[in-house]
Amino acid sequence: MIIRRNSLAAALLVSLSVAGCADGAADTAGATAAKDSSTAPSAQPIPSEPIPSIQPVPGQPGMGDKTLTGKITAGTEPGCLLLNDHLLLINDPRLKAAAKAGASVVVIGRAEQGTATTCQQGTPFVVTAVRANKPGDKGNKTLTGKVTAGAEPGCLLVNDQLLLIDDPMLRAAAKAGTSVIVTGRIDKSAVTACMQGTPFVVTTLNVKS
Hints:
The chain is α+β, with helices and mostly antiparallel strands. Among the domains are: 66-132, CATH 2.40.50.140; 141-207, CATH 2.40.50.140. Helices cover 24% and strands 33% of the residues. The protein contains three helices and 13 strands; from the N terminus they run H-E-E-E-E-H-E-E-E-E-E-E-H-E-E-E. The protein has helices spanning 2-39, 93-98, 168-173, and strands spanning 66-71, 73-74, 81-83, 86-89, 104-111, 123-132, 141-146, 148-149, 156-158, 161-165, 179-186, 191-192, 198-207. The strands form two sheets. Strands 1, 2, 3, 4, 5, 6 and 12 form a seven-stranded mixed sheet that branches. The protein is elongated.
């Protein structure tokens, strides 16, 4: 009987020891998991960068800010047209029909040096208006009224006449909403990117006070 009681006591002690070890291991694992979760870096949202917007350049006319006058010459490559070392880039079929090699013209547009072309000559020049060059013809018609903006960017009208202004100083003075007195001539042969008004070549422009 004494031996049996000792055996039962020993078995009970072994069971308690095993349970204690299991509980200790569980506690240790739980503490380790809690420590890992507290030290793990939390995912931060990636800030979205705003998409840059292209803003129009103040004071830059839609029809272009440069005027070329002279005779169109053919380039080395077929279909390439030059005027005063500028390569004429013409997208509008009406403008293209008016720009012929050998023609003496006045061209309005803007230089775009970064434009890639198959022509190997000249500075790329985007053409927005073409008309025949008539030296000495100042015209004899006077328009009086308020300058209004056309449907297309950079197009200006007075009394249903589309203003074609070669002189940069006159162009700077002709602003939509300004009352002016304009002298010049009608030139129906002129071809422009503007879809309104009769082309009117401006030779003088006075702002009314």
